[in-house]
Amino acid sequence: MVAFGKLLVVGGALLVVIGALVLLADRLGLHHLPGTLTWRRGNVTVFVPVGLMVVVSIVLSLVLSLLFRR
Hints:
It is built from two helices and two strands, in the order αββα.
């Protein structure tokens, strides 16, 4: 039971960090990058941030390559 509690605490902390990063990205205006696709039909809006996905992919690739460098 202790291991499950620790897992929940770590998962919650991870969600807080991800939420803070999303709020920071919004304040920096990263949701208006070129390549953002938006479709609106009646009451439904589909938002696909392709430009942001490319930027996040490049940054994560650089960070992980630096961390796992041998």
